[in-house]
């Protein structure tokens, strides 16, 4: 005698208990007792009847809930290459030392200043442009500095995230 | 006088069911008034008289005999060999014991129909 499960309630049926019903389409139902049998014949869905196993499973009653909560997935941070910057480039920029970065920044500023000075000198004649140049220089300095900064800061600080 | 549902694939049985004139029981070969799962029965099919074995009842039977939604029967000849080659509906395993008791060596062997059954309940 094998231990069957009631097809309505989900309980175990020990030998010597229960009844069977065979439908004309060949489907067999095993019932633990007349309560299950009558509920089935009344066409009550076991998923809506509170004391059955199917209901408890559907509404996740009992211990299953605890075990599933503990197993929340952790998202793995994965660095990917973007168009315009390969993976090695991104990693190189991220892992750059602050001194190196500062030196790069200063270099860029100096280069920009030189470029601006040269441009201004080329445009206007030397004598008239002399006092204006100085003003222009200070203004350019102020403009030049913040320009490269945000560029570098962006890649430096947010290199890890997409 | 019950009308019975033929559950094997014998030609007469199939034709009768298709026609809408299922076999009618006219005599039960038992001492009890009513036929029960496993009883041999005399049946009229398509104007002929044949023997059949009741394979499932809608009425509640003794304990551990499953209840079916229709009264099923398998057509059988005098010696107990089934007229069809396959039984499509599930058959109660209780019949194994009952048909063996009914069978007589050198006489009718009713357990042959168990060999053509496809599913047991």
UniProtKB/TrEMBL annotation, chain A:
Keywords: Ribonucleoprotein, Ribosomal protein. InterPro entries: L24e/L24_sf (IPR038630), Ribosomal_eL24 (IPR056366), Ribosomal_eL24-rel_N (IPR000988), TRASH_dom (IPR011017). SUPFAM superfamilies: Glucocorticoid receptor-like (DNA-binding domain) (SSF57716). Residues 6-44 form the TRASH domain. GO terms for cellular component: cytosolic large ribosomal subunit. GO terms for molecular function: mRNA binding; structural constituent of ribosome. It comes from the Eukaryota. GO terms for biological process: cytoplasmic translation. Residues 58-77, 114-162 are annotated as: Disordered. Pfam families: Ribosomal_L24e. The keyword Ribonucleoprotein applies. Belongs to the eukaryotic ribosomal protein eL24 family. PANTHER family: 60S RIBOSOMAL PROTEIN L24, RIBOSOMAL PROTEIN L24. This is Large ribosomal subunit protein eL24. The gene is LOC108680179.
UniProtKB/TrEMBL annotation, chain B:
One of its GO terms (biological process) is translation. It is found in: Mitochondrion. Keywords: Mitochondrion, Ribonucleoprotein, Ribosomal protein, Transit peptide. Pfam families: Ribosomal_L14. The keyword Ribosomal protein applies. InterPro entries: Ribosomal_uL14, Ribosomal_uL14_sf. One of its GO terms (cellular component) is ribosome. It comes from the Eukaryota. HAMAP family: Ribosomal_uL14. PANTHER family: 39S RIBOSOMAL PROTEIN L14, MITOCHONDRIAL (PTHR21037), LARGE RIBOSOMAL SUBUNIT PROTEIN UL14M (PTHR21037:SF3). Belongs to the universal ribosomal protein uL14 family. This is Large ribosomal subunit protein uL14m. The lineage of its organism: Eukaryota, Metazoa, Ecdysozoa, Arthropoda, Crustacea.
């Amino acid at each position: 005698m094998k231990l069957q499960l009631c097809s309505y309630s989900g309980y175990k049926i020990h030998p010597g208990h229960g009844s069977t019903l065979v439908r004309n389409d060949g489907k067999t139902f095993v019932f633990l007792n007349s309560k299950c049998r009558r509920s089935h014949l009344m066409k009550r869905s076991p998923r809506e009847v509170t004391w059955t196993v199917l209901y408890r499973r559907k509404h996740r009653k009992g211990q299953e809930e605890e075990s599933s909560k503990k197993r929340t997935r952790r998202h793995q941070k994965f660095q990917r290459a973007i168009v315009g910057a390969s993976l090695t480039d991104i990693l190189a920029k991220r892992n750059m030392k602050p001194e190196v970065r500062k030196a790069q920044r200063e270099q860029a500023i100096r280069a920009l200043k030189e470029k601006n000075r040269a441009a201004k000198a080329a445009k206007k004649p030397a004598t008239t442009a002399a006092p204006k140049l100085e003003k222009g220089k200070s203004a350019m300095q102020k403009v030049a500095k913040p320009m490269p900064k945000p560029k570098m800061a962006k890649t430096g600080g947010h290199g890890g995230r997409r | 006088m019950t009308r019975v549902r033929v559950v094997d694939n014998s030609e007469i049985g199939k034709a009768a069911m298709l026609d809408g004139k299922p076999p009618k029981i006219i005599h039960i070969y038992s001492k009890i008034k009513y036929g029960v799962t496993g009883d041999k029965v005399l049946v009229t099919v398509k104007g002929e008289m044949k023997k059949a074995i009741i394979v499932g009842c809608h009425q509640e039977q003794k304990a551990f005999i499953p209840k079916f939604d229709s009264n099923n029967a398998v057509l059988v000849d005098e010696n107990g060999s089934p007229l069809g080659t396959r039984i499509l509906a599930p058959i109660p395993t209780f019949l194994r014991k009952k048909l063996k008791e009914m069978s007589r060596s050198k006489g009718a062997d009713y357990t042959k129909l168990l060999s053509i059954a496809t599913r047991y309940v």
